[in-house]
Amino acid sequence: MARLTKRRQADTKAIQHLWAAIEIIRNQKQIANIDRITKYMSRVHGMHPKETTRQLSLAVKDGLIVETLTVGCKGSKAGIEQEGYWLPGDEIAYSMQPFSRTATPNKDWETENHDWYCFECHLPGEVLICDLCFRVYHSKCLSDEYRLRDSSSHWQCPVCRSIKKKNTNKQEMSTYLRFIVSRMKERAIDLNKKGKDNKHPMYRRLVHSAVDVPAIQEKVNEGKYRSYEEFKADAQLLLHNTVIFYGADSEQADIARMLYKDTCHELDELQLCKNCFYLSNARPDNWFCYPCIPNHELVWAKMKGFGFWPAKVMQKEDNQVDVRFFGHHHQRAWIPSENIQDITVNVHRLHVKRSMGWKKACDELELHQRFLREGRFWKSKNEDRGEEEAESSISSTSNEQLKVTQEPRTKKGRRNQSVEPKKEEPEPETEAVSSSQEIPTMPQPIEKVSVSTQTKKLSASSPRMLHRSTQTTSDGVCQSMCHDKYTKIFNDFKDRMKSDHKRETERVVREALEKCYNCEEEAMYHCCWNTSYCSIKCQQEHWHAEHKRTCRRKR
Questions:
Q1: DSSP β-bridge partners for residue 316
Q2: Looking at residue 72, what is its pLDDT?
Q3: Which of 38, 101, 303, 338 is the right S-S partner for 49, CB 3.0 to 4.6 Å?
Q4: Angstrom distance (rounded) from CA 100 to CA 90
């Protein structure tokens, strides 16, 4: 039976600040009482004492901080009960001491079956519990179609409803997902490098279901995903856990958001055309020339500032057309529909300047049309080798992945042959063409350009050229570009390591400094075994207040 319940109420970032305050105070052999905690939170995080008290009270109710009452056994506090706060788990050893008792019993968080925070906004509060999985949602975070209609009925979250959609070919799905995971691994390099990860002792107190990119990759390799929606849900869970543990404004949360956004984009591109998605990642020879099922509409597309260029139509939306150009880099762009002409339009009516890039694009278009006439579609026997293909596609080595059907021979000469179905000889190029119509080898999109899911191929050549020269040129340029790319990545990684080491060293030195017993500032004067002061004023105040009765310094 579905119901609304308050799982937790305290803010996750405030809880981690309170944990740090209690740990630092305890390391100084002091009782972590409300006064010391509020002073620390005000000084370090600028939190008002009232807000600190409120968050501390909520954390105790949530079982994330343990409150204890201890009877003093010596000094001025002998026989007086003092409140103290402990991290979950630390109070067990303390409760074994005499004259101590736990004011609030600790909750058994390991037996929880559901998450504590909304899966959509990642915040605590009154949530709706799913009957099939661990996820919970605020009612306000759900769209109308997913909201609870009747409290007596069972309720399923949006993720569980979407996962019910089955995909036809599980092996094919695993092949596609391997490409996406390979891209996720690139984004996730910096995700857990800032000092805290899933090995942190308090991590599982906040994160109910831990997941990371290696775990997702393992599930893909073992074929455990039943649908693309289930894979997307794990990527969203990674974002959910990162925001909860590191904070919504943290650098890790920004990386996780970008990773999830890229994953959703890859899945959208996969649903748009599976053939294009696979071929652009596997990168066999002439991959852009193979027809898709169903075939893409062929058009002449004109971007602002350039002439018409042959392209495939990927999708249409309102008055815009998403096209992918033939040619060197196969770029994507959104083009207004008035700048689109059917491929059957005579090329001489388009008034284009026939540059080398334009001619290569037309050669590729001609090969694509020949494949269409011959009914030659891409057929791979090694699609289950998705991991090797995914890794090779990331490094842009495009000539060693798959076995390709024999490339058709093309006749030499007739370089200016028209690309229309009717093989007409072109007229002499005597018409005057303005310089603004000249198209470079790689047209730069000026209008709204969609981010292509396919990795750019670093070197491409005309289908009319011999395969040996194509492979030699491609490999040489590829190796040079890869060397520059990975040199830059290594230098960036080394700089980040140096800065992280410097910050960590400063933090350790800062925490190792002794604190003033009276005001918790950096201490300069040592009195006895666990008592130091920042100034003579603090020493005198604490001496007359209580320390002269407990000081252990030999005099």
A1: 321
A2: 59
A3: 38
A4: 13
